[in-house]
Amino acid sequence: MHFPVVFRVLSLLSAIVSLSMILPLGWVAWDGSADGKAFLLSIAAGLLVSGAFFLAGKKAGSYDLGIKDSFLVVALIWILASFIGALPFYLSGTVPTFTDAFFESSSGFTTTGASVLSDIEAVPRGILFWRSLTHWLGGMGIIVLSLAILPFLGVGGMELFKAEVPGPIPEKITPRIQQTALYLWGVYAFLTAAETALLLLGGMNLFEALTHTFGTVATGGFSPLNRSVGQYGSAYFEWVITIFMFLSGVNFVLHYRMLRRDFRPLARDEEFRLYLWIVLGCTAVISAVLLFGGHYDSITEAVRYSAFQVVSIITTTGFATADFELWPVFVQIVLLLLMFAGACAGSTGGGMKILRLLVLGRHTRAELKRVLHPSAVVSVKVGGKAIDDSIQSSVTSFLILYVTIFIAGVFFIASLGMDLLSAISGVAASLGNVGPGLGSLGPMDNYGAVPAAGKWVFSFLMITGRLELYTVILLFLPETWRK
């Protein structure tokens, strides 16, 4: 471990988080609310932390971050960002305890969208804007943003990129990691601007257009309204958000190439095709069940609500236009399974990722062929390219680790007195960064009644899921800390 270099990077990242709180002050000034003091104190505290890290890493020379350094930086910055980001919630009195503040903050930065707030519309707009802004910062990743700056500090960032970008195979657009980070953020900003403009054209005010856009492109799900997007009752808003949730669940490298008018990778990308077919298939099945079950009167209405909820869950956004706990149990099971699947690798979505499921399926099929033909050489291919044995092993290990953490989480949450359905869906929603679950944690409920110990565990699961498990779990291995 090269701790001075780690401290230098943490200094930069904590400063970015702290200074981003200047943006909500605009709404504080506009509304004349009293929460400006909370933001100023939070900025000061965050910059003090940044200054302390800067002094600790002052003697660090020019150095390329190693694997261990990168894992440590990525894990610590998400924890640190959650602590700094919790300060406005706590100091403004929006939530009664720091546990609730940390939960809300970590849910924001990890783009989970689970909330402890009951009357959201009673919260000042400055706090609500910060709440949604944490989504936008965490969506593409504070780390990816910092990669554009790290070279000027004499710190390389390729391992940092690998440790932060979701998915088993991080893909660079250009040979230079700094340029890759800038291009990814460019695509992210483009989607943000496009959706905001469309929502404004539909009649949504600027504040709500921005906060809903932040929740959409980051696949986060925080809404400034008590009943989320469903409160508008607008088909236009719902279809715009559905489309942008779907787009945000696509690998951002594909977005970049499409913006450059290169559509060939999209046509060849097996992960995208599977993602598309899952969305279309689940939407069709759920629409049919809801229509013939008498939940909706027309096919357009059934498709509208089904498509929104399917895309919201598979991309792990968590927006809601209907209380899907009132839908048939079969539909709820489908949505629960989509929580585990997640969106495409290289997107802002959470979950296990479609690419991993694709590799796992091909690996299983290859093993069955080897049983039938022991002497045959069977390779695992995705998109016409052979997948290395190391990646296949990594995917299998990830699945085993994911299921193990899920089961352990369910046992712990259930031991706190929560019913089994709430425990299962709450852990799945937290680990997959989805947000709403089932039972007492449904789309029209919140996490406010969860015991304090449960909120800390859910926060841990949210951060662990956002960082693809390994980044956090490796910190608990003694080998990580050995030279």
UniProtKB/TrEMBL annotation:
Keywords: Cell inner membrane, Cell membrane, Ion transport, Membrane, Metal-binding, Potassium, Potassium transport, Transmembrane, Transmembrane helix, Transport. The chain crosses the membrane at residues 7-30, 36-57, 69-91, 136-161, 182-204, 236-254, 274-296, 329-355, 399-418, 456-477. GO terms for molecular function: metal ion binding; potassium:chloride symporter activity. It is a multi-pass membrane protein. InterPro entries: Cat_transpt, TrkH. It is found in: Cell inner membrane. GO terms for cellular component: plasma membrane. K(+) binds at residues 111-112, 220, 316-317, 433-434. It comes from the Bacteria. Pfam families: TrkH. Belongs to the TrkH potassium transport family. NCBIfam families: 2a38. This is Trk system potassium uptake protein TrkH. It comes from Aminivibrio pyruvatiphilus. The lineage of its organism: Bacteria, Thermotogati, Synergistota, Synergistia, Synergistales.
